[in-house]
């Protein structure tokens, strides 16, 4: 298998972690989607990472689809429950974590613009999304069922990758205040070899 993406993408990191947790052999192709000469559109028509090319040569995208495809393979551990409705619940938590990450990416890109061109309204809107999203994840982590439970799930990985990105880009540096269950979750996840091996390079 071949994983196409960049080392700093939290969505690529999510897939890398899943591959490592399952012990699957893969080649990582460091490819940014932003340059005009990027090869990413060859694998994903939308020009987004990650993309995964399986052993038959078929390309899969984007990260939720790749994660679901990987969990449908024989490799363990299984990151989604067998019960279809419970699996949808875990997928919803993954979507929530990814949504927080989407807002963080918008903030990062907005702050790359000249100060006079930045929209404070947009920045506040995205920060509010992050706040609500993290509060909802904290509530789920406190329950300890499909997030922050005894068995690792796709929701755990997605949430930890999102918070790792918040730390990496220094977005919402006080995210941990009044969110003890999320703190417990990421402390546990960051100790895993899969996360240690996928720490993004210093910005």
Automatic annotation (TrEMBL):
Pfam families: GST_C, GST_N_2. Residues 83-203 form the GST C-terminal domain. It comes from the Bacteria. Residues 1-78 form the GST N-terminal domain. CDD domains: GST_C_6 (cd03205). Keywords: Transferase. One of its GO terms (biological process) is glutathione metabolic process. Gene3D superfamilies: 1.20.1050.10, Glutaredoxin. Signal peptide: none annotated. GO terms for molecular function: glutathione transferase activity; maleylacetoacetate isomerase activity. PANTHER family: MALEYLACETOACETATE ISOMERASE. This is Glutathione S-transferase.
């Amino acid at each position: 298998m071949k994983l196409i993406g960049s080392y700093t993408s939290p969505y690529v990191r999510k897939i890398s972690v899943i591959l490592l947790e399952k012990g699957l052999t893969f080649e990582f192709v460091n490819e940014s989607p932003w340059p005009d000469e990027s090869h990413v559109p060859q694998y994903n028509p939308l020009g987004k990472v990650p993309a995964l090319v399986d052993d038959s040569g078929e390309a899969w995208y984007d990260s939720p689809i790749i994660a679901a495809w990987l969990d449908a393979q024989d490799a363990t551990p299984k990151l989604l429950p067998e019960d279809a409705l419970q699996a949808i619940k875990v997928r919803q938590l993954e979507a929530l974590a990814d949504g927080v990450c989407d807002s963080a990416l918008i903030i990062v890109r907005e702050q790359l613009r000249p100060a006079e061109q930045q929209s404070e309204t947009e920045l506040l809107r995205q920060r509010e999304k992050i706040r609500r999203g993290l509060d909802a994840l904290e509530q789920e982590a406190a329950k300890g069922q499909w997030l922050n439970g005894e068995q690792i799930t796709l929701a755990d990985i997605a949430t930890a990758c999102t918070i790792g990105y918040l730390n990496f880009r220094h977005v919402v540096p006080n995210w941990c205040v009044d969110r003890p269950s999320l703190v417990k979750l990421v402390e546990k996840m960051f100790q895993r070899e899969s996360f240690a091996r996928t720490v993004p390079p210093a910005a």
